[in-house]
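Progress narrative, work stream C.
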Amino acid sequence: MAAELSALDVVLRNACHVRLVEVRASRRAIVVDLAEPERDRLRKAMAVRSFSGMVCACMGDVRFEVLDARRERLAVVLLHHGITLAWSDWDGHGVLADGRVLLRWLHEHGLTKRQIGKAEAPSWDEVAYRLLNAQEPGRAAVLDPYQKVRT
């Protein structure tokens, strides 16, 4: 499993640019050049400590389109709730080592924390707690940020 945890880092090592796209809000896109040391900062911010065994029911908050020197896509990764990443090469979501580091990196590059737009929407802490503590052994959980966790 350790090889799978490092798979995204291998892709990021070869990245030259990343296109950041807000999924829900304005859908604006920002392209960040990943010259050193910026590439290493992003690799650290996107470090995954474990796999959750869960899949979130939302569309994600920010799409990371990882690009090579010709700006061809190497990978598309979605940030969910500031705590997990979804990538097609993984089963379920990867839990960030420290989601605050990635949110700070996004803020430094012009994207702020997602605004859900509903007064009754739970806080990041509530969503994170439910997502990380909802699974039962052998069953995947699906999180809808406006509903209780479904297993």
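Work stream C, second folded protein:
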Amino acid sequence: MNLRRVVVVVVALIVAAVVVGGLWALLAPVPDLVVEHGGQMRFATEADPAKLFDGVAIFAFLSLGLGALIALATWFGLRSSRGLGGLAFVTLMSIATSALAIDLAGRFGRMAHGALDRSVPGTYQGTVNLWLEGDVGPAWVLLVCAPTAGVLVYLICVIASAHADLGVGDLEPAQAPVAVDAGLAPIDAVGPEVTSEDEGPRTRP
């Protein structure tokens, strides 16, 4: 495997994770929160709770696209690793880049909308916490999106491959079978040809 190519692919996918985090900060709706005296918080309007779900859904779709991109980059960029090695790379890289994108999305969101201070009453623009908490599921549930899409796309590439070695080129070409005639041997191959000069005189008994 070409180490330089691996480094290029890894760096490109890390950049893609940064782009996903930035896109989420731009596309995700921002809920308005009201901090009351005593540090109590509430949503400013009845529509704000739905924005939390919208933010999670947008990141899920972005993660699916990230996983598909990782699979295609691995298939075409790391040709020599096609197979189980490539599938393992897709899975691990999808999890790692998803975690990075979640962390960066929260940071970019707080940078764009400001931090919330419970000690100061007022109205704030909140940032959806992508490390989910509560009854939705485990905190890391969004980490499943990218690996799922990545493994699916990679398996599609494997099934669609027209080569037994998946295009790696590490299999020896099969030798063509030697054709063998099953018919009778020609007469001249059975014995020497007998001419009329070699025949003795024929006499009747």
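Residues 16-160 form one domain. No further action is required on this item.
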